[in-house]
TrEMBL record:
Annotated family: Belongs to the archaeal rpoM/eukaryotic RPA12/RPB9/RPC11 RNA polymerase family.
Protein species of origin: Jaapia argillacea MUCL 33604
Biological classification of the source: Eukaryota, Fungi, Dikarya, Basidiomycota, Agaricomycotina
Protein name (database record): DNA-directed RNA polymerase subunit
Function: DNA-dependent RNA polymerase catalyzes the transcription of DNA into RNA using the four ribonucleoside triphosphates as substrates.
GO MF term list: DNA-directed RNA polymerase activity; nucleic acid binding; zinc ion binding
Domain of life: Eukaryota
Length: 126
């Protein structure tokens, strides 16, 4: 499933980088993100009321929302979990963890850790 833009009021934001997307022009079926080239189907713009006289505070609140969505940590589109795990490199006790499912269930899973402090990465097999 391709990711779709985030709708805030009558504005659409790129799901990848949070950039405000332009409205489709004329018969365009796709809108490209200027920042990262994300392709947003113009159909996302259906059902959006384009109000020429919106609330004066509509845009500032959209910007605040945008700030919030950008605090997420992106790595392959997945959110990383912060866990208590000792870094073998610097001894720091916090790391981001991410579980990788291997081909078959019998092979168990591998957990990838990334040290919060020094960004050292290591993996643990279950
Ligand atoms: Zn983008
Ligand atoms: Zn470390």
């Amino acid at each position: 499933m391709p990711k779709l833009a985030q709708k805030i009021g009558s504005l659409l934001f790129c799901p990848d980088c949070g950039t405000l997307l332009d409205l489709p022009q004329g018969d365009d079926t796709i809108v490209n993100c200027e920042q990262c080239g994300h392709e947003e189907p113009a159909s996302s713009y259906e059902n959006i009321e384009i109000t020429t006289r919106s609330h004066p505070d509509a845009f500032p609140s959209a910007l605040r929302q945008k700030g919030k969505t950008q605090t997420k940590i992106h790595e392959g589109g997945e959110a990383l979990l912060k866990v208590t795990e000792k870094c073998p490199e610097c001894g720091h006790m916090e790391a981001y963890s991410k579980e990788m499912q291997l081909r078959s269930a019998d092979e168990g899973s591998t957990i990838l850790y990334t040290c919060v402090e020094c960004k050292h990465g290591w993996r643990v097999n279950n």
